[in-house]
Amino acid sequence: MKKILIINDYSSIVGGAEKATFDSFELLSKSYDVKLYFGTDKPLDKKSLFSYFLSYQSYKRLIIELFNFKPDIIFVHNYYVVLTPSILLAIKRFRKKFNSKVIHVAHDYSLLIPNSILISYNNDKITRFNSPPSLLDIIVKNLSKKGVLNEFTQKIKWILAYKILNLQKTFDQIIAPSKYMKLMLELGETTKKIPIIHQYSFVSINYTKNNLKKNKESIKLIFAGRLELEKGIYNFIQILSYVKDFNFHLNIFGEGSYKDEILNIIIEAGLTNKVTLHGKVSNHVIIKEIEDSDILVLTSLWAENAPMALIEAGLLNKYFITSNFGGMAEIAKLFQNPYVIDFENTESSISTIKNAFRDVIDIPTRHISNETRELFSKEVYLKRIEAIVSI
């Protein structure tokens, strides 16, 4: 029986990478000897500036695990923050004696840019990279909101890992969860062959429930995610101030450094009775809230790769309002969801939101094709993963 080691930074559910880690473990364990390997839920102690870039502690711990377990296949999910790229040095050393296959699942753009989200900052203004930035752009652009020292160390860490040591070459294959991620990686000349494997969803392929809304009922919107500038919820609330005549309520679940600014814009926009912040809650609560809502909101200012929130909302027959670029636009097209907005065009954004509100009332029943549902099924996911594992 083949042995598979699955690596990820965090052992608790932080985002899509963690969900994918546990989901793949559950499915692959039925046919293979699978083991999970994590960093910690807090960054490892770094006793020197150099260990911030390449952690000897992280390197040594994985070396021990690799030589004890001797995996035939190594799946690497997120590793850049906690484990650091030093784990790739450990894998390279292990492979000098054992011919393991190494597969990276690209949940973000960390192979292409130090901040992993393909944007730069200018005070409170965000500029999106529409293609992988050049090394010159990485050096001169402001890629962090956390100060000059943080930005400098992030850039040095990235340049050392991928431009000097070329640790990305450790991967035999990279899996992209979306066409957009595949395109960005190919433009970045990261690897030649990149299969697309969509992360599977818990939602049954036979899910048929629809919420019928009466005209006088309030339209329920939900946003679940980090309260940060790049998530775009601040901008969305600004647009909601133009549609206050509609009977709606937006529930926001999450925490983040931009919380105070979001609270302020809610007050300034006169939406205190229409927008509620609930703080961070469990994933199970989020799922239930999505089911009880009419529209999911995910209007990030960065090109999210393949956000599961949109996929699951679509599979739950929900409307969603999202951004008109990146993996978000790709998912909207898959689910034939026309409600994509561009914050640079206020009038168009207002019109899109109004159309979504009207359609929720007038056309409450949505039908998603079986073909689309199958793309995100366990069966298709496992079939495509096993095709890679069996080679």
Helix tally? 15
Q: How many angstroms separate the termini?
A: 14 Å
Ranges where pLDDT stays below 50 over 5 or more residues in a row are none
Task: Trace the largest sheet across and list its strands.
Answer: 10-9-8-11-12-13
* CA radius of gyration: 22 Å
| Average pLDDT taken over every residue | 88
The best one-word shape is globular
Total strand segments? 13
The CATH class name of the largest domain reads Alpha Beta
According to CATH, the fold-level topology of the largest domain is Rossmann fold
Q: Any idea how many domains?
A: 2
SSE order, as H and E? EHEHHEHEEEHHEHEHEHEHEHEHEHHH
Q: In percent, how helical is the residue content?
A: 25-40%
Provide the CATH architecture of the largest domain.
Answer: 3-Layer(aba) Sandwich
- Classify the secondary structure makeup into a structural class: alpha/beta
Give the percentage of residues in beta strands.
5-15%
Give the arrangement of secondary structure elements.
Layout: E1 3-8, H1 16-28, E2 33-38, H2 49-53, H3 56-69, E3 73-76, H4 86-94, E4 101-105, E5 119-122, E6 125-128, H5 135-140, H6 148-164, E7 173-175, H7 179-187, E8 219-224, H8 233-240, E9 248-253, H9 259-268, E10 275-277, H10 283-292, E11 295-298, H11 308-315, E12 319-323, H12 326-334, E13 340-341, H13 346-362, H14 370-375, H15 378-389
Parallel strand pairs: 1-2, 1-3, 3-4, 4-7, 8-9, 8-11, 9-10, 11-12, 12-13
Antiparallel strand pairs: 5-6
Helix pairs in contact: 3-4, 8-9
